[in-house]
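Dear V.,

Thank you for sending over the compound details. I've combined the ligand you provided, flavin-adenine dinucleotide, with the protein sequence from our construct and run the structure prediction for the complex. I'm sharing the raw inputs here so there's no ambiguity about protonation or stereochemistry in the SMILES, which I know was a concern on your side last time.
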Amino acid sequence: MPDRKNSTELLIIGGGVVGVSIAYHCAKAGIDVLLLEKDQFGTATTSQTARAFRTYFPKKPHDSELAVRGLTEFNSFAATMNTDLGLKHLGLLTILTSPEQTAEIEALLPAHRAAGADVKLLTAAQAVEYNPWLDAATIEAAVWSPECYRVKPEAMVKGYADAAAKLGARLLTGAEVTGIDAGTGAVSTTVGEFTADSIVIAAGPWGGEVAKLAGMELPVWGQFAELLYTDPLAEREADTDMPFTFHPVSGLKTMGRGKGFLVGLERISKQEGLRDVWFEAAVEELPKWYPKAAGAKLHSAWTGTLDVTPTKSGLLGRGDGEHERILFAAGFTGHGLAHAPTAGRVIRDLHRGVAPEIDLTPFSLATNLALMPA
Ligand SMILES: Cc1cc2nc3c(=O)[nH]c(=O)nc-3n(C[C@H](O)[C@H](O)[C@H](O)COP(=O)(O)OP(=O)(O)OC[C@H]3O[C@@H](n4cnc5c(N)ncnc54)[C@H](O)[C@@H]3O)c2cc1C
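Below is the predicted structure of the protein with flavin-adenine dinucleotide bound, written out as C-alpha cells.
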C-alpha cells in the first residue's frame, strides 16, 4: 500500500479555476487527487477577469464547443455544488464592419451551430436594437449569441474546491512546486516531496515555467492586460442593460459597469511596455464605435496577466515520450472561465486513458509549437 500522504494518482499544479475544476472532476471519478497551489486558490489570473462566460468565439468553433460543453455544468452549479455563481444574463454581440468580414464570419456559423452554439446573424439596424449605444452607420452586420453571462469567478473556484475536498481530494495552498522529474513522477515542493502517476500543469500564465521544471516546452506565457472604465454616461441606467459587445477589428470589448462601460482592448504581443500605446488606442477606438460615449474619459479599472498561447486557445493534452506522465491545461488566453468545466473532464479522461469528448488537435502541443512566435 503506497504512503498516501506523499504519493498520489494525479497531482495538479495550480489552484486557479482550471486546476480546481480538474480536481473536482477527477475526484468525482474516484481518482486520488492532490492539488498544489503556491499562493491561495483563485487569487491569480482567475481573480482578474471581466467575469464573462461566453459560448461563441467568432473564428474558433473549437473554442465555442469547449465552452458550450460547459454550459450545463454552469447552469446546474447552484444545485450540484451548492454554490450560487451569481449568473447575470448579458448576451454577446459581435460587430462586423465590412462585407468581407461578414462573409468570413457568416461562413463559420454552421460550424458553431454544429458545435452547439446558439448564434444568429443580425443586420446593422437589429444590432443597434440589442445595443443602442452603437452607431448603425459604422456597422455592416453582427452576430448575436445569447449564451453569455456575468459570473462570480471566486464562487466558481470555491464551489469546485469545496466539492473536490468533500470527494476526498487534497488541496494545499502555500505549496510551490520547485522541481519535477517526469520519468519517476517525483515532484519537489516548498512543503515536501511527492510522487504521482500523472502530473497536471494547470498553472495558467506560469505553465511554461512549470513545464521547464520537467524539461518540457509548453508555449504559454503571461502578458500584461488592463481593463478600463468610462465615466458615468448620462443616459445609462442599469448595470446589465447592454450585452457584452465585441468588435473584432479594433479588439474593443465593452460591457456595462455601473452607469458607464467596462472596456477592454484585445491586444496580444510578446513585446513589453505597450501599456500607454494600448491605452491611447482604446481612447481612440471607443468614440469611433460609440459616438454617444464620445468625451467620456477612460480610467484604469485593474490590470492583470493574460494566459497566452500561440493559437490563442488553451493547451489541453498530454506530453509525449519522456513527458508522457505530464498532462496540461493552461493558456486559455482570456477564456478560462468558459473553458474550465470541459477542461476538467478532458484531463480526467486523459488520465484514465479514455478518449476525451472533443478533438484535441486545435489545443495540442504540436499545433501550438508550429505557431510559436520568435
Ligand atoms: C484582464 C483579464 C480579463 C479576463 N477576462 C476574462 C473573462 O471575462 N472571461 C474568461 O473566461 N476569462 C477571462 N480572462 C482569462 C482568465 O482569467 C484565465 O483564462 C483563467 O483565469 C485561467 O485560469 P487558470 O486556472 O488557468 O490560471 P490562474 O488563475 O492563473 O491559476 C494558475 C495558478 O497556478 C499557480 N502556480 C503557478 N506556478 C505554480 C507553482 N510552481 N506551484 C504551485 N502553484 C503554481 C498560481 O499561483 C495560480 O494560482 C481574463 C484575464 C485577464 C488578465
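A first observation: The chain has a mean pLDDT of 94.

Warm regards,
I. M.
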